[in-house]
């Protein structure tokens, strides 16, 4: 019995290795991925998630396989259990919840343990299967692991900020509290992504964080300052008592293109 279990686990690990072999022919990886879908164990789900963490030599094939895994995991996370005579609707919903929780657990395990720089694919799955509270709990764990400051590879936090800012289930306040700190991140691209993430939100609410970022003494990037001014102008953000601070920052090329008039930034 123990030997049989060991053999099954060993076979599963070999299948996962085949699915993750970036040098293999695509039909071989497809076959292994199909077996993982059919296996449906927790370890097989994790193995499917691990496909996000390798990059095959052929870009088109790599994208195809990752998109396929996204669809498979989303399908599993939204699946009801097989119908059983006498089963109540509540029992079916509970079965679906358990399926979702299994996939979410695999995604979280992958995102925590992987050195993969991109989070875009697992986050896409999360957005398709998880309810509001589950998404918030999951992304909060990720944000906690991406502390503001220097990061050798900031790609993960860029993906996280971008995805969460665009997630339709998030309110303005939920986005602000999580994204605002990154306006002062060490990496310029992270700061740019945070600005972009806030730019579509309520103008009355973004004025404070964006003006704070604009006048921040440590901000030396002309690109960042121009991006902030462009957002203030495009969204017609009411500057209120902070109009003078913004005016003072319109120097050099910015002064040639923008002005503060009537409490808002306008193009000249």
Describe the structure.
It is a single chain. By secondary structure, this protein is mainly α. The model has no long low-confidence stretch (mean pLDDT 92). It has a domain at 1-83 and 90-130. A two-stranded antiparallel ribbon has the order 1-2. The protein is elongated and about 70 Å long. It has helices at residues 2-19, 26-39, 42-50, 59-77, 89-113, 120-129, 132-145, 155-166, 172-179, 188-199, 203-215, 222-234, 243-249, 253-257; strands spanning 258-261, 264-267. It has 14 helices and two strands, in the order H-H-H-H-H-H-H-H-H-H-H-H-H-H-E-E. Helices cover 67% and strands 3% of the residues. Strand 1 and strand 2 form a beta hairpin.
Strand order across the biggest sheet?
Answer: 1-2
User: Globular, elongated, flat, extended or rod-shaped: what is the shape?
Assistant: elongated
Number of helices: 14
Element-level helix/strand string? HHHHHHHHHHHHHHEE
Total number of strands: 2
Mean pLDDT: 92
Percentage beta strand: under 5%
The description of the largest β-sheet is:
2 strands, antiparallel
Q: Which spans of ≥5 residues are poorly predicted at pLDDT below 50? A: none
Structural Rg: 23 Å
Gap between N and C termini: 79 Å
Helix content: 55-70%
Main structural class: mainly alpha
Write the layout of secondary structure elements.
Layout: H1 2-19, H2 26-39, H3 42-50, H4 59-77, H5 89-113, H6 120-129, H7 132-145, H8 155-166, H9 172-179, H10 188-199, H11 203-215, H12 222-234, H13 243-249, H14 253-257, E1 258-261, E2 264-267
Antiparallel strand pairs: 1-2
